[in-house]
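Collaborator request, handled under Task 6.
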Amino acid sequence: MKLTESKMHRDKEHLPFLDGIRGIAILSVFLFHSLGTSFGFDKLPWAGLFRDFDTSGSFLALYPLTYGHAGVAVFFVVSGFCIHLSHQRSRDKGWACFFNRRFFRIYPPYLVATCVFFFIWPWGSPDPEGFSPLAQLGSHLFAVHNLHESGFFGINPSFWSVAVEIQLYAIYPLLVLLTIRLGWRKSLILAGFLEIFIRSASSAYGVFYETPLPRIITSSPFAYWFSWSLGAYLADCYLTGKRSRLLSGSFCNRRGRFFSTPAIQADGPLYVSFVFLADRHRH
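Structure tokens returned to the collaborator:
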């Protein structure tokens, strides 16, 4: 009987449609990085306000893959959805319990992976003009390496997203507080304004000063807060059975019809366009 109840609980917790979204995101990021391995670059250079298309025909044929980095934003949306869903379903909604669950879910495997890549399989040697090996390790152990250029691609180039994820967990209580005080709509507007402001400022700064803004601004969790908060909002819609005002249609009903055509056709392009605002300042 207990085994049956446990299985029913797991089935309730598992949402198969998320596997498909994760798969698409993984494939898009993988194909994006494969361009760099194959051609030596994964983005067309900027020529003023537009991309310079003066390159090989083979690369131009694969040009749509250059937007595969948008899969990272999709991961943050899925993360926000899963974390908010898990927290709201939890019997103990105290923040001590929340951070305890999150810590033991993400940090032990991250710690093992960091030690493996640093001590056993050093993917890349630390920048001698940047962090020392000890500082590099310390910044990763405290998950703040994404906030400095020397640590961003340090021990493992993909670990920056883990640090951002952990920092998004840390400011999740702030999001919940905002939704209680302001509601979801105003909270998302605030998060969206903050993220767009960071990206726009980064682009403008790069154009006028020909140098990027510090990582502590462009790679902070607030630079991805809207994507993550959007996922949390959709989870709230899923739990309450309410239709999303952002995604008209049956995207957020409780029976799992998350891909109804009206929702995707009406609002999908708007979010995709927002994601692509990150394109210029990231590359």
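The cover message to the collaborator said: "The beta strands are 46-47, 50-51. The chain has a mean pLDDT of 79. Please let us know whether this matches your experimental observations."
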